[in-house]
Structures are given as structure tokens and as C-alpha cells.
């Protein structure tokens, strides 16, 4: 995979695929701009090299229709503020008007194309749409790690239709950190997997079992594992159809010599509400009708034991319903422990990143990935189509 630094960009039309799919509030204010800021080094490099910069991105899932709510206009304004350079928002991402606008660009100028997903051809990886995008450019740069698991036109189709292609700095950094933590880790390597559903993480869990020395499983998905060993988890969320798989997974971990850590106590409540009455109980004492919504203090102590001398930590998924303060303590404690570990720590996924942000420990994590689905697919051991397309 070539890096952007391997290419000469002067006077060339550079099509940069970014992932500016950022969260916004009702006033269309960007509430977290990390995905934009992480692409700035690539943008600045292209400008310094005197390329003509055409940026494209998706926003949300408008399902092939023009939906104003998903316009990239707020991103154009924000990017302009961050860079202190004019960013022209094109009326669309392909078509005559866009071609004229791009045709008039001079060196060092920036055009942001409107949301790619206003055309269903983007998600269909339509060859004609890919050609239309390719015709706008001499060079294609993918710096959109967070969408590189999607075989879409702007991620895959376009790559072979442009004269030169390479990875931007963000994509390269993401892949390098992942490689360092999973393929050449300093051991012990600890994986922390949490979140609501075993079903969405089973592939990742199974793949990681062949790589890690230790694994912590927390969040609602831990209930399924506990129930598979005969624990009565009360009214806690469980995926009953996965009990057998969970049981086999526990056996496989033992057979492979991976030390598996499951919660030993919980914060439980009868209702899933911020003001619910809560209790701390051991895993054997979850009252009937109550549900586990966070790990308890004994689990935090146990998990700290796994973290203590870990040299590499990879984390995806929270320990409980941390968005409500009543159920945030376990996840917040874990953020602190990961942050203070003498280890290379990598956190990925929207919820875990939000949790780290809430804890104020972002600066003490070695690397916070910008990917959600893409990060999980790497954990599953899959090759990302967007990365493969750069080969
Ligand atoms: C993300 O937010 O994970 C990426 O932007 C991909 O978005 P998608 O899941 O809608 O493809």
C-alpha cells in the first residue's frame, strides 16, 4: 500500500475520500469533530504540495436520496474554520456542475463534494458512478478508515480507475496501530470486549482468541456467557440462541490457555432508567426481575488484575449502560485503569470512544481509533475492502 508521501501531487487533481460522518445536534452543530481533525494532516500535506484538493465523504444514511438534513454544509463551514482556508461546497458529488467547478480549480484550492450517499450508486459500488468520480481526479487518496469496511464506489470502485492511488496519513496510522497491537504485540496482550450483543461481536471474539493472552468480557454480552455456565442472571439481557456458542467459547478459551475474565458482581436495577433504584450484588445474587446494568466494584478489582502487567491492550465496547450516571462507574473505572496502564492501549468503536471522552482520559490512551464497524472488522481478522483496493 503506497503512502501519500510516495506521490507527487503538484498541480494534480487529488480526490481525497474522508469519513466526515460526524455527529450533529438539532442545530446542525458538530458535537464531535475528531474525524475531521484527524484528516487535517493529509489535507495540509496536499495543500503544501500544491495539489488541487477535491474531498468527498458520506454523511448518515440518506438511502440514495437528497435529504438536506444529511448535507455536508456544516462540515464545509467547520473545515474552513479549522484550516483558515476557503472550502467550496459543490452542489453535488458528480455531474456537469461539479465537473465545471473542479475544472476551474487552481493549485491549493479545496472543493468539498456534497454527500456521496445522495446517490444510491455510491453504496451499490456502481461502475458508472465510480467512473464519474474518477474523471474528477488524477490521484485518489483514501483517508477514510472508518468507512473502509464498505465496498462502496468512493472506497473501492474508484481506486482502480484513477492513475495513482495511496493511503492518507490517518488510514496509515490506524492500520499501523492495529498491526502493532494484534500482529506484533508486546505481551501480555489483553482484549477487552464489551457492549450489548454477543451476536455482533462473536466473530471478533473468536478471532481474538487465537491472538490474545487474556480477555475481559463485560457489558450486557457478559450475561449470555454467565447464563451459559448456569448462572441465574434474572431479567438481564441475554441472547438465548447463543448460549451454546458462549459455553463452547469459554471451553475454547481454556483449551487455548487464554485467561478469560467475566464480571463477578453487578449494579442491578428493575428498570432501565437513569433514576432507577440500584443495588450492588454478586453474580450469584441477581434478584429475579432485576437486570445487570453495570459491573460492580469487585469486577473492577478483578479486571485491574488483568490490566496490571498487560503490555498491549485493545478495547471495544463499554462495561455497562454508561450513558446513565447510575450505571457508568464500572466503565469509568476501566477507562482510568486502561489510561494508567504501562501499555500500548488502543480503543475503538463509538461507544468506547464516547466513554473514554466522558472519563476525560483521552490523552492517556495511546490511540483512539476513528472507526466503529471498520475497527470491529479488523478485530474479526477481515481485510478491509478499502485497504485491499489500494494494493
Ligand atoms: C461509521 O460511522 O461507522 C462510518 O461512517 C460508516 O458508516 P455506515 O455504517 O453508515 O456505513
Average the pLDDT over all residues and give the rounded result: 97
CATH topology of the largest domain: Rossmann fold
- Rough shape? elongated
Bound molecules: 3-phosphoglyceric acid
Q: What is the helix/strand order? A: EHHEHEHEHHEEHEHEHHEEEEHEHEHEHH
Strand content: 15-25%
CATH superfamily of the largest domain: Phosphoglycerate kinase, N-terminal domain
Structural class: alpha/beta
Largest sheet strand order? 3-4-2-1-5-6
Regarding quaternary structure, how should these chains be classified?
Answer: single chain
End-to-end span in angstroms? 5 Å
Number of helices: 15
Cα-atom radius of gyration: 23 Å
* Poorly predicted tracts of residues: none
Number-wise, the strands total 15
Quickly give the CATH architecture of the largest domain: 3-Layer(aba) Sandwich
Q: What's the main sheet like?
A: 6 strands, parallel
CATH class of the largest domain, please? Alpha Beta
Counting structural domains, the number is 2
Helix content: 25-40%
Topology:
Blueprint: E1 13-17, H1 34-37, H2 40-48, E2 52-56, H3 73-83, E3 87-89, H4 96-103, E4 110-112, H5 120-123, H6 127-134, E5 139-142, E6 164-167, H7 169-182, E7 189-193, H8 202-209, E8 214-217, H9 221-228, H10 243-256, E9 259-261, E10 265-269, E11 278-282, E12 291-295, H11 297-308, E13 312-316, H12 329-340, E14 344-347, H13 350-359, E15 367-368, H14 373-379, H15 385-388
Parallel strand pairs: 1-2, 1-5, 2-4, 3-4, 5-6, 7-8, 7-13, 8-9, 13-14, 14-15
Antiparallel strand pairs: 10-11, 10-12
Helix pairs in contact: 8-14, 9-10, 11-12, 12-13
